[in-house]
Amino acid sequence: MPESSFLRRGWMPLLLIALAVLPFWPSLAGDFIEDDRPIIRDRAELRDPSAIPSLFSQTYWPRELPGGLYRPLTMTSYALDRVVWGADATGAPSRVGIHASNLILNALAVLLLFGILRERCRDRLSAFVAAALFAVHPVHVEAVSHMVGRADLLMAVSFLAAFALHSRGGAARIAAAGLYALACLSKEMAVVLPGVLLARAWLDRGDQRASAFLRRQALELAPQALALAIFLALRGVALGASANPPVAFALRAAPQYLAFQDPAPFEVGLTMIHALGEILRLLVAPFALSADYSGFPHAKGLSAAIALSAVLIAALVFAAARAARRGRREPAFWLLFFALTWLPVSNLLFPSGVVLAERTLYLPSVALAGLVALAVERAASWDRRSLVLPAAAIAVFAALSNARAGVWRDSRTLFEETVATGRHSGHIAKTGLVSELILELGRESDPATLLRSLALARASLDERPTTSNLRQVARLEEASGELDSALERRVSLYHFVPSDLENREALLRVLDRLVAQRAAANDSYQVLSLTGTGFLVAKRSGDPQLLQAWGPRLDRAHQDYIDEAIASGDPDEARRRVESLARTFPNHPLLERYRELRSVTPPRAGD
After folding, report:
1. Residues 6+ apart with CB under 8 A from 412
2. Residue 352, SS3 per DSSP
3. What digits encode the pLDDT tens for the residues 113-125?
4. Which of 23, 228, 485, 591 to pair with 179, CA 20 to 30 A apart?
């Protein structure tokens, strides 16, 4: 296709940069949202440039929040943001600076993709249209606007640069291996690059014999293998691997972070077929986006949605295979690119933390751009008016991305929108919204907000009975005066995590309030029972101050309980209560006080 002088002047890269930045411009006003807080805002190592080397021996999440992730280069980039852009009022890296870096990385990824497509397409216009669609795609808003989306952006930039360099051979291939290592150190999804390179080489091999092809690829991919080995070794040490004593390191997230908890047979496969159908819809028609898919239905059997997804997937595979048999291998390559880059989060090899997350589609969506480039190239060769459709799609996608980026300005806005409109939102969005409402309640008490928070927290706990959800419900029940239920939650938490000091303090606080209520109602038995629970917690804590506080209270509760029976004129009941005390505390000083009561022989039945 002949190119206009406009195209020859090289304005395309400038237009692509504008498309990669302007739709996401509202993200510059974004606050720290959810994961941004523990990973970036509260991370002390990011405030001291001399601590950067230590990031390569740490996990991505703080140690107290294990997630089985290792992304030191991403963490280093946040520390460098603070050096370049400065710090905000809290001392954390500048929020505007972090967002600006994300926009720059998005633009770099778009330019790299444009270069790759330009080499694989016969004309520049097709590559430009496809790269432009990638630049403005709404499914990328999470990766670009969310600060921790940096991992996907940095990984994609390194991945695409390595992909582009590898085919040039020589020193470029060594550089590609280095970039591959950087991609892996940014996010674990990058480990599949050798598979992508192998797929490309296999489809481009021509008449080369398989044995000769494999020998050549073994040599060409050797630097990649070395880079992968180094990454796995670093990751293993950071996640706790050791040779003496031998301790294996996890290749996946900790169990409490997994999307599937003890799945039934075929549940994972059927669910992920459905999820893949949803992903294809998001890529082609990116409407009804969501920051949370934790409510995505886990399949127990075949459904219409799963069957439709399976048919769609089969049709795509069949079309690509048919094109490959006719000598057009590019569609097959881009489908393989998508499959391989999505595989690490597909739950098919090993469980991951999500069924679906839009940020994880940033790199796989490169395949969509590749297919669009092929379609535009073919359609434009017939009729240039066919470019109207992709041009309209670019305009619509840019508008959607701009509107969506505004939703990511703060946690409250994001979670309100997700709970209200998310197609498959679940406990994560509810828990996030409850956290924001709790912060609001801390600033200003409001009964309606409290009731709404409690309802959301209980719904989230029903969906996923985690300790964090249980903690939220207990806190809100205490605030609403539902102390008996709050006590039950706090006791459960205490059994799950006895070392949780915050929960222990809350448990004793709830006990204290309940004791006061029962005492006002003259319920000495409940006072004794509740005080006994408080004493046991204090005793197990080993804290002498707590023992000094709850020990005398338990003595008074026992005394009041026994004296109540004596005052009622029921010596038999009083005697039973004294004996109960003797069985629990054989040497208790109160036993001497009630010695005469214990020495009386109770009448026998029938006397």
Report:
1. 433, 436, 440
2. coil
3. 999 999 988 888 9
4. 23
Q: Tell me which amino acid residue 277 is.
A: G
Strands 246-247 and 242-243, sheet pairing? antiparallel
From the centroid of its chain, how far is CA 26?
23
Predicted local distance difference test score (pLDDT) of residue 351: 78
The model's pLDDT over 438-467, given as tens digits with 9 standing for 90+, comes to: 999 999 989 999 999 999 999 999 988 888
Nearest to 163 by CA among 370, 374, 395: 370
Query: Do 432 and 304 form a contact (C-beta atoms < 8 A)?
Result: no
- The Cα–Cα gap between 419 and 404 comes to 15
Cα separation, 535 vs 510, in Å, equals: 13
CA distance 399 to 8: 28
- How long a stretch of residues is the chain? 607
Let me know: does 183 contact 153? Beta carbons within 8 Å. no
Left, alpha or beta for 206 (phi > 0: left; psi -120 to 50: alpha)? left
Q: Where are the alpha helices (DSSP H) in 187-255?
A: 193-203, 210-220, 222-238
Instruction: Determine the average pLDDT of the residues in 601-605.
Output: 46
CA distance 147 to 532: 48
Residues paired with 242 in a beta bridge: 247
CB 376 within 8 A of CB 387: yes
Domain boundaries, the chain: 5-405, 426-476, 515-602
Give the mean model confidence (pLDDT) for residues 303-314. Answer: 92
Taking CA atoms, 585 is separated from 182, 553, 566, 580, in Å, by 64, 15, 20, 9
Angstrom distance (rounded) from CA 135 to CA 113? 10
**Closest Cα partner for 81 from 153, 23, 179, 138?**
153
CA distance 136 to 404: 11
Tokens of 548: 């000094």
φ and ψ of 87, to 5 deg: -115, 160
Q: Is the pLDDT score of 189 beyond 50? A: yes
Give the integer Cα–Cα distance in Å for 241 and 234: 10
Amino acid of residue 96: V
At residue 67's C-alpha, the angle toward residues 63 and 70, to 5°, is: 80
